[in-house]
Structure prediction request, 201 residues.
Amino acid sequence: MKSITINGSQRESVGKVATKALRNAGKVPCVLYGGDNPLHFSAEELSFSKLVYTPNAHTVVIALEDGSTHNAILQDIQFHPVSDKILHIDFYRLFEDKEITMDIPVSITGKAPGVMAGGVLRLNKRKLKVKALPKNLPDYIKADISGLEIGNKLYVTALQNDNYKLLHPDNTVVCQVRISRAAMKAAQEAAKAEKEAGKKK
Prediction:
């Protein structure tokens, strides 16, 4: 999985006054959990744009001023209800021998015969919850739709992989090909016309 480096400074003071001063300076207060003690640090708000405003999943390398680096994933993020500015971010430390849970985007591949026949592809799950060791986390989960006819569904069981575990019930639908409204309306009108023609005979 691709990684993004965040350059940060460790925070000594974590009170409300210090936190407000950080935000006023264009920085985001952050906490790294998962170690012996939570690590408080801050980083420029702009440095989070590639991590937050993207559909892709990334791991994070937190590089602090003292030269230390910490591998992590984004766990939680708080936005201001009006301005949408980032108020606070929680990270969770990665350990090579410990499995973690993460939402991974679904990538559609192939062409569905049902779509070419006039159906509409509906993506029910844009992301799937995955459990894996950090080294086995995929950038995305490939969903091959080349076998889907109109009315067919692609279930999560078709996307299982030895490197990671999908944390969804087996009957979870990832995507499906449905008949389009136009095709449905045409079929209804054809059936109605046929019925009326039958009455006239």
Q: What stands out?
A: The chain has two domains: 3-94, 101-185. Residues 101-185 form a domain with the RNA Polymerase Alpha Subunit; Chain A, domain 2 fold (CATH 2.170.120.20). The radius of gyration is 24 Å. The mean pLDDT is 89.
